[in-house]
Design a protein that fits this description.
D-Maltodextrin-Binding Protein, domain 2, eleven-stranded mixed sheet, two-stranded antiparallel ribbon, Arc Repressor Mutant, subunit A, alpha/beta, disordered C terminus
Length: 317
């Protein structure tokens, strides 16, 4: 098997570029005699004459020109492969799979993805939509790299970072009497027909609604297995009202208005966090997590006696 190293190719290409072994050796930072012997040894291994001495200097032969052209292509391909490997190892190239159930029409998640795109334009972001249980299951199975959810599983022992909070919003038909209430209180929603999607944050918003209105008895909840935009269309024609998170308010629909839902002490919020597997070796994950840490630092100010930090969630950004 012929043994030709990349250094052989590089030295041959440099010699052809300069047409002078002396100048080529200076460029390579080696002695002229070393270069001359290496090229002679290469010719011996190839069984072909690559260079000939003329009055114009050291010139490639016909066989040498073909070898040099092929060598340049090989060296360019290797350089490109090395550059790709370096950018991939730094998380600047590749694919990142993010599990979400918050809307990206507006708000923190949209802003975070936009900033990530500015910093890492060569990273392909693949979004997976689903409810909490599905996303945490896929995270455990390592089919997604990071999940943006409101709560982790109680038994989750991977990485977790508190992020932002989103206000709970009620989408109402424009002609609905409650549109004059700014903001809305939870008791005002008692016995209203509430549309909720089975997807995304729907189940958590349903638990929140039932918990807030439990003293009013059972509620008129209509669970729909459709996407957010289809439910908002139903709201617009009067089929009911709908609980959403503020990130969804970037989607505008004729006939739909949004109102905040308040507790006694202000807007009702749902806190979000990022969850991931610590053993995940995808190099695109770490830069994304670093971006999250920079935008939404964990401002834990105290440590409990047991040693666990008391995490506080960042506000709206």
């Amino acid at each position: 098997m012929l043994n030709v190293e990349l250094q052989d190719l590089k030295w041959a290409v440099t010699a052809a570029q300069h047409r002078s072994l002396k100048e080529a050796a200076q460029t390579l930072g080696i002695r002229q005699l070393t270069l001359s012997r290496r090229l002679a040894d290469l010719e011996h291994r190839l069984g072909a004459v690559l260079f000939e001495c003329t009055t114009g200097g050291t010139q490639p032969t016909m066989a040498g020109l073909e070898f040099i052209e092929t060598s340049r292509g090989i060296l360019d391909d290797v350089d490109a492969a090395v550059r790709r490997l370096k950018t991939r190892s730094r998380g600047e190239h590749g694919r990142l799979t993010i599990g979400v159930y918050a809307s990206v029409a507006a708000g923190n998640l949209r802003a975070t993805l936009a900033e990530h795109r500015r910093h890492f334009p060569k990273v392909d972001v693949y979004m997976v939509d689903g409810g909490h249980d599905r996303l945490m299951g896929e995270l455990a199975a390592r089919t997604i790299d990071v999940a943006i959810v409101s709560t982790c599983c109680p038994s989750w022992d991977g990485g977790a970072l508190p992020l932002w909070s989103e206000r709970v919003i009620m989408a109402l038909p424009r002609a609905h009497p409650l549109t004059v209430c700014t903001p809305l209180s939870w008791p005002a929603l008692a016995n209203e027909p509430v549309l909720l999607t089975k997807r995304g944050p729907g189940p958590e918003l349903e638990r929140l609604l039932i918990g807030k209105l439990k003293r009013f008895g059972s509620q008129r909840i209509q669970r729909q297995d459709v996407s957010l935009d289809r439910l908002l269309s139903l709201v617009s024609v009067g089929y009911g009202v709908m609980l959403v998170l503020e990130g969804a308010t970037g989607a505008h629909y004729d006939g739909v208005v949004y109102r905040e839902v308040h507790d006694d002490d202000g807007p009702t919020r749902l806190n979000f966090m990022a969850c991931w597997q610590e053993a995940n070796s995808n190099p695109t994950l770490r830069p994304f997590l670093n971006l999250l840490r920079e935008r939404y630092p964990d401002l834990s100010a105290a440590t409990s006696p047991g040693g666990s930090s008391q995490r506080s969630r960042g506000g709206i950004r």
